[in-house]
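Objective 1b of the project was to move from sequence-level analysis to a structural picture of ligand recognition. The entry below was assembled by the postdoctoral researcher (A.K.) and checked by the PI before modelling. It contains the amino acid sequence of the target and the SMILES of the bound compound, zinc ion.
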Amino acid sequence: MSLALEVNGFIRNSRKTSSVYDLNGLFPTMRSGMNIETTAASGMLTSLTLYDDRGQIYETAIESDIAAFWQLTEGLCTARTTYRAIKANADWQGVHAVGQRAIFYEINGGALPVVQPATVVCKRCNVVMTLEAATIDHRHPQSGGERQAARRVFRAVGLTQQHARHPAGRIIEERSPFKDRRAGFPGGSLSYLGVIFFTCIKIANKYEAFAAACIHHLVNLEPLCFRCNSSKGAWGY
Ligand SMILES: [Zn+2]
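Corresponding predicted holo structure:
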């Protein structure tokens, strides 16, 4: 079952929670005096509203926001075993600027016909290489990097108070319906909307599973040339 179905199902049944979480670095921190209330219709989650104990409303996620959240997070994660196929994914190609670029070859001063293969740029050394030659690197280590990966996905999706820093993240952010809704708790890192979605994941007990999936989110899968990718390994160059 998808995380979206599991989390939404859990939240739909819980109606209201007073355990509200922000992220402090990589760790959940509880915001006291806050609540999230849900509405549902025909078995579907239709809204999530963040408000304080005095009834002041901070933010409401409507049905289309909830759908967009899952589409931009879990929907852009590849399966652990098939992440190399991401090279054929149109979204990934857009985020990492895959395009046809002219390559000029010369042998002993004689120019060969110009070829225009699909190319991509190595994220470390900026060499232009054919897409075929590119290797795919997990920006965060597959073991231990899960929470960094999740935080980066939240930032890329526009659910943090700060904007995405990385070019790939900025491209995802541009498409996000959350990009202009940045207000959040002073001293916190998530926006109010981010708090709403993060709380749902946390109280459904799915933070670990969500973070593990984020390792394979397309914003965390970068093209590297073979030399840069192998230099990260034991034998270096
Ligand atoms: Zn390189």
